[in-house]
Amino acid sequence: MSTKRPISTFTYRLARLLRTSIPLSGTKQVRFATAPTFRRKVAVPIVFENNRPTWAEISLRNLRDNFKSIQRYVGPQVQICAVVKADAYRHGLVECSTALQEEGATWFGVTSTEEGVQLRRAGIQGRILLMTGFWHGDEDAIIAQGLTPAVWENWHLVHLQQASRRHNSSMAVHLKVDTGMARLGVLPSNLGETTAFLQAHPEIRLEGIFTHLASAEELAESGTGGQLSSFREAVRSIRQAGFSPKYLHAANSAAIVSRSDARLDMVRPGISLYGYYLPFTGRTARPIPKVVPVLSWKTRIISMKCIVSGQRIGYNGTYTATRASRIAVLPVGYADGLNRQLSSQGKVLIHGECAPIVGRISMDLTLIDVTDVAGAQIGDEVTLLGASGQRAINAADHASLASTIPYEILCNISKRVPRHFTDHVAP
Ligand SMILES: Cc1ncc(COP(=O)(O)O)c(C=O)c1O
Prior knowledge:
Elements: E1 2-3, H1 9-17, E2 30-34, E3 43-45, E4 54-59, H2 60-74, E5 79-83, H3 85-90, H4 93-102, E6 107-110, H5 113-121, E7 127-130, H6 139-144, E8 148-151, H7 154-167, E9 171-176, H8 191-200, E10 204-210, H9 223-240, E11 247-251, H10 253-258, E12 266-267, E13 295-300, E14 303-307, E15 312-313, E16 319-320, E17 325-330, E18 347-350, E19 353-356, E20 366-369, E21 381-388, E22 391-393, H11 395-401, H12 406-411, E23 419-422
Parallel strand pairs: 4-23, 5-6, 5-12, 6-7, 7-8, 8-9, 9-10, 10-11, 11-12
Antiparallel strand pairs: 1-2, 2-3, 4-13, 13-21, 14-17, 15-16, 17-20, 18-19, 21-22
Helix pairs in contact: 2-4
Bound molecules: pyridoxal-5'-phosphate (PLP).
Pyridoxal-5'-phosphate binds near residues 83, 271 and 272.
């Protein structure tokens, strides 16, 4: 119920105790829950907090260790641009970037101006690279917040130059070159137009040149070598036009390992910071920097039932119990990001034991068979991703069952799942 009446001192104190934000004047609209039996006598402000027992634990300790491991691997002369786009692959943009900054990260790679502004507001002082450029209207924020845009379209340059003139300032940009992915970047054949513009407008400073590699984890693939030589050629022609960019960069997580010639001045690890690599195929890769998953995903049993052999389970009864079974209900489903392809295929961990997911994963709920897990009961913690006892399940396991990549498994863990940040080592 909503009301506009003044708030009593008692109610205000209670609200403050419960950490709600009711103003002292007490005339602002506030929501009250009125218990039916005490209608009009006691009004208790509702505190909306997510109490659903499904959450993700983010080990900032593991993230820090992964960063240090990659920095050791590439050596101190190579800068790391920590890729924290997409909410740090859904691990939490601000918390992860803050931890990385404390560990010495000086560059952060994001995808949008909005993410860059978020980082600045959170106190990130390092350089912020807008890896996928920007959109019309972002220019003033880019200048005001000291963000560094990737550029490749002519209109990028024109808009930034106009904004620089308006603000009477200069700005650094990184030119993205399309060396074979046919996604973002200026084609090497069109570089002349870009360098001519930059020569005419020195307020736009070419600080970096970069490219993105399509398949650096495929070691037998000749495409990566071709992309790198096309990149070297592009850099040569830009230098011939009179530019001396400080940063050349090309390597994502896979290329850091597979191509020492891709490391250049700066590397851009993303997935490895969060503890994963795509499987390398082809020749044996060099040793990989040791990284461990940062995110664990947990839930609790909220209901249990015993069923008879032959009972069909869940939507469309796609799974039939082949014995009398104990079925536990988990408050997690595909709306939380649990991939539906794991239906009757995936496993969870409980008391250090594996329990199979049975029947279709639904939007908010998942059923598991705990017949073989002694003592499983309502309230018990269940691990969807992470370790329990001697066992562990990771995003690569989910990805292989769901015919996708760990990136998607992590990025799909929805906002509905609260992130709890810890500084403990997660096993
Ligand atoms: C331009 C660019 N650089 C680096 C990365 C990081 O890649 P990875 O997560 O494979 O290390 C990405 C991610 O997609 C990217 O788009």
